Structures are given as C-alpha cells and as structure tokens.
Amino acid sequence: MWRDLTPIGRSASSGGYFRQPWHPAELELRAWFREAATARGLEVEEDPFGNLVAWWGPAAEFASTGKVLTGSHLDSVLDGGAYDGPLGVVSSFAALDLMRERGVEPTRRLGVAAFVEEEGSRFGRACLGSRLAVGATKWSDAAELTDRDGVRLGDVIEGGESTMLDGVATYVELHVEQGRGLIDLDAPVGVHDGIWPHGRYRYDIAGRADHAGTTRMEDRVDPMLTYAMTALAANKQARLQGQRATFGRIDVRPNGTNAVPSHVTAWLDARAESDAALVSLVSEIERQATERAGRDGTTVTVTAESVSGEVAFDPALRDELAGLLGGVPILPTQAGHDAGILQDAGIPTAMLFVRNPSGVSHSPYESAETADCLAGVEALADALTGLVAGEVAK
C-alpha cells in the first residue's frame, strides 16, 4: 500500500507532497481508498463533505452495538511529509488485514475513515471535514470559505448534513509523531493523552503604498514594518512563556520590489499548554502589534479564523489501551487532529503515535522506520481487537 501512495502528489524538486483537497493528487488518493476498501469487501460510505469510511461487517448484523472507527486523513500541508495522515489510513487497512488473519470475530462494526481537509491547506480551516461531520462547523459558514484562488468551497461540493458518525461509540487514530517524545524515550509506539489548545489568527495590516526610492523613510506608512515587529514579538513571547507561535504565511500587496506595500496579511499559528495560556499568548502578541502600528501610522485588525480548545482524550480508554499494549508511554501532543474534534463531540477517543526518527513534521524530512510502522500496525490491531471483540469496555 505504501508503495502505491509514495509517488502521488510528490514534488520532483523538494521531495515533499502537495495533496490539497479536491485537487488531482488528493482525488487520486480518494480513488485509491475506494479500491483498497473494495478489495477487502468493505462497504464505502461518503458523506456530503467528502469524508470517507469503509465499513467491515453489515450494518444490520451489528445494529444494536456501537460502532468503532479508526483512520486519519489523506491530504497534506503544502510541501509536506509522506506520513502525516496517510500512515494512519494505511495502518488501519493493515490492522484490519491482521485482525482477519488472526481470526478475529467482531461483535461491533468497524470502520476505516479518511477525513477530508484535515490540514486546512486549501480552505484555511483545520480539521474541516471532521468539524462538519460532527456539526461543530455549520455548512452555511463553511460554504463561503475560499481558497487562495478565490474558489468557494460551496462551488466545489454540495454539502448538506452528515450521518457518517451516527452510532460511532469509539474512535482510535494512529498518527506519525510530530515531535521527539518517542525518540527521547526510545519507544516505537506511544499513546497520547490530549491536545494543546491552538488557533489560527489573521492579521490584516493596512498602510499606504508609495515609491521605494523617492519616499523618505520618515514619511512612510509601511505595514511591513508593523508585520516584522509583530513576527519578532510572537517569537519572543512564545519563548518567554514556553508556548508556540509561528507566522508561516504572508500576503503582501501590491508585492512590488520598488514599492512600499499598502497592505500585509499574515497568519499566526499559536499553541499553548492550556486555554488560559493560549489567550495570554495571543493577547500579548496582538497588544504589541497594535502598539507598533500606532508608531508606524498603520492599522491592525486581528481575526480568529480557527480556534480549538484544550482536548483531553478519554482517560479510561487511554489507560486501558496503554495497558493492553504493554505499558507504552503516554504523552501530550501540540498538533491538532481529527481525533480532537471527535472527542470534543462526545465520542470517546484515543490516539496511537509511531516514532518519527527525524522529529520533523510538515516537511519533506518527516520520516518513519518500517519496523516502527509495523509495530504501530500491531498495536492498532491489538487495540481494535479489544474494542470490537469485547475485551476493552468502550
């Protein structure tokens, strides 16, 4: 399976992946998902938002028992790594294969899911597919989201209401680790106990376009200066508070080499260990940006585009799975996941992580060793067997 996926959406120059939702590479991955499900005799369901799930076992046979869901996503960030998302989907199919080889007789329906637009790399809303599936985001709002080319989501898909998660009692997601926790502990697999709160904030900084040569420095109203100070302030405040803050995307207008810009739009990604810490971090960055704008003669407008609160995964499920897997490490994560959306929606959720020897993610340098990936498949198969065969009480 991994051999089939490796070339899809891969950049020949960087080695990274461009798998943005509803673009050719991501659509090819969706076709691969359907083929993998059909080859296993699974029933494929697609909701109005493009989320996919492949079900093992006829619905009527397990109508009285809560369904178990596993999976992840297939889309990527711009120039992203191979493992973030697809490893969870491939491992889910592999775990199901292993369970069948072991002769597991499920007493609950098991589904392998592929949520759409998890990264928010096209329409700017992280975990958009799972948010729509659980109703955390209204379709009327999501339909108006636009990509960088001005295309509305409502012109790409019809939308509506999703019933895909009806009856789902438990969700387990496997993911490549996006940090160094398992490296430091010398462990191939771990369980995560929660997700740091995080958000995306758009900074619109308005100034006045002018000539780069004839305009004296003291006569300029330059939004780039305000942005530059704000980016430095974000870095400093995150370091001082022990949190995370990143300006990773910027749009400058008119974007001319010989012109003072008239407008800068920049996006802040902020993450912190608690909801209060996130509010404190974001507020301090905005305060410093506003003060600098006053000195530069510019204006700053901050819009929270996407904010996710602190998530604690189901503690009983977490502890039971960690014990079932032989006491693997339990760690927090600073990355957002569809699992966090489902947990917030009241579906007991757990996450398994596979060691990333580079410690690098959202980058072509993201990696995982085959032996660790196979250990992850074993761990996921054990966890799912416990859930669908009645050994784990969820």
TrEMBL record:
Amino acids binding allantoate: 200, 258, 271
Reported cofactor(s): Zn(2+)
Record key words, sorted: Hydrolase, Metal-binding, Zinc
Name the UniProt record assigns to this protein: Allantoate amidohydrolase
Lineage: Bacteria, Bacillati, Actinomycetota, Actinomycetes, Propionibacteriales
Presence of the UniProt keyword Metal-binding in the record: yes
Family membership noted in the UniProt record: Belongs to the peptidase M20 family.
Pfam families registered for this protein in UniProt: Peptidase_M20 (PF01546)
Highest taxon of source: Bacteria
Alphabetized GO MF terms: hydrolase activity, acting on carbon-nitrogen (but not peptide) bonds, in linear amidines; metal ion binding
Coiled-coil residue windows: none
Residues holding Zn(2+) 2: 84, 119, 362
Binding site for Zn(2+) 1: 73, 84, 175
Cofactor info, note text: Binds 2 Zn(2+) ions per subunit.
